[in-house]
Amino acid sequence: MCYFDMKKQIIIENIGVSMDGGTLVLKIRKEESIFYEVEFVQKVVFSSRAPMDRLPGSLVLNEKEVEIRSELEREILSEIRIAEFGMQLEESERDSFKRMILERIEFVESEDYITVARKVGRIK
Asked: What superkingdom heads the lineage (predicted)?
């Protein structure tokens, strides 16, 4: 199933940064009423056995982990890379938000992403 229609620009309406050391949550709108939430989960692998809501390094769409190196992953990253910002995001903050987003995209596309996925058991 294709969540993202490459012909329609997405708008990042809101951005949340978690206090866990790097999780970034994007609230995304496409068209007038289709909303998505994309989460770039922090990539630090903690040594404690404390339960985590999300595995480190995960890319999550609407509460579900996106399969590593899948077509959906490529579509999401491609769309987010060229997304516009909604009116509620301050103009003065957009450059730093763009840098943060691009850093997360580069990580997901990197070999380090695979390394973290192996460490946390997402892939073998």
From this structure: Bacteria
For residue 120, what are the contacts with CB-CB under 8 A and spacing of at least 6?
45, 55, 56, 57
Report pLDDT for 80: 96
Provide the token pair at 18.
Answer: 């978690």
* Among 96, 94, 59, 62, CA closest to 78: 59
Distance CA 50, CA 12 (A): 32
Eight-class DSSP state of 93: G
**7: pLDDT confidence band, cut at 50, 70 and 90?**
low
User: In this predicted model, what pLDDT tens digit does every residue of 70-87 receive, in sequence order?
Assistant: 999 999 999 999 999 999
What is this structure's pTM?
0.84
- Among left, alpha and beta (phi > 0; psi -120 to 50; other), residue 32 is alpha
Q: Alpha helices of 2-110 — where are they, by DSSP H?
A: 71-81, 94-109
